[in-house]
Amino acid sequence: MKKMNLKSLLAISFVVLSLGSFAAEKVYEAKSEARGYNEDGVPIVLTVKAIKKDGKIIVTDIVAKHQETDKVGGAAIEQLIEEVKTKQNYNKLDSVAGATSTSAGFRRAIRNAVKDIEKQN
Fold first, then answer.
1. If we measure between CA atoms, which residue out of 33, 15, 26, 21 comes closest to residue 112?
2. Do 38 and 68 contact (CB within 8 A), yes or no?
3. 5 is a domain residue
4. How many CB atoms are located within 10 Å of the residue 40 CB?
5. Which of 17, 23, 84, 103 fits a 20 to 30 Å CA distance from 9?
6. Which of 31, 77, 35 minimizes the C-alpha distance to 50?
7. 108 by DSSP, 3-state: which?
8. Contact 49, 116 (CB under 8 A)
9. 44, 43, 50, 30: which is closest to 78 by C-alpha?
10. Is residue 18 part of a domain?
11. Contact 77/106 with Cβ under 8 angstroms?
12. What is the DSSP letter of 103?
């Protein structure tokens, strides 16, 4: 068996310590819904997971259930989810072109979910 070099050992130690500190974070979850745009009036339902760090809510995952159209509303929801996760800007989301009602419903649902998470201990 080969001896592990110092760089490899340090790299492994860093990964283990990083995972340990992330695992220590409490993950909060909230479910919220708001009407988007579909003929049946079925709401967009978001399940949001987040951590609290330095007094801020950091969204780590969003799962959406909806009956919006795949090409327009569904694509808009995926774009909005990615924007929230990468930019953490759930309070200032712009509408996606061509999906104004879907975007508005998503904004209402994400804001309500984050408000719920803010209240959780």
1. 33
2. yes
3. no
4. 5
5. 23
6. 31
7. helix
8. no
9. 44
10. no
11. yes
12. H
- Print the domain residue range for 82: 30-119
Q: Which two tokens stand for residue 15?
A: 């990964």
With residue 51 as reference, give the H or E element that holds it.
strand 43-53
Task: Give exposure, 1-17, as e/b (b: 16+ Cβ within 10 Å).
Answer: eeeeeeeeeeeeeeeee
pLDDT in tens, the chain (121 residues): 455 566 654 456 554 555 555 557 899 999 999 999 988 999 999 999 999 999 999 999 999 999 999 999 999 999 999 999 999 989 899 999 999 999 999 999 999 999 999 999 9
Amino acid identity for residue 74 in this structure: G
What is the number of domains present in the chain? 1
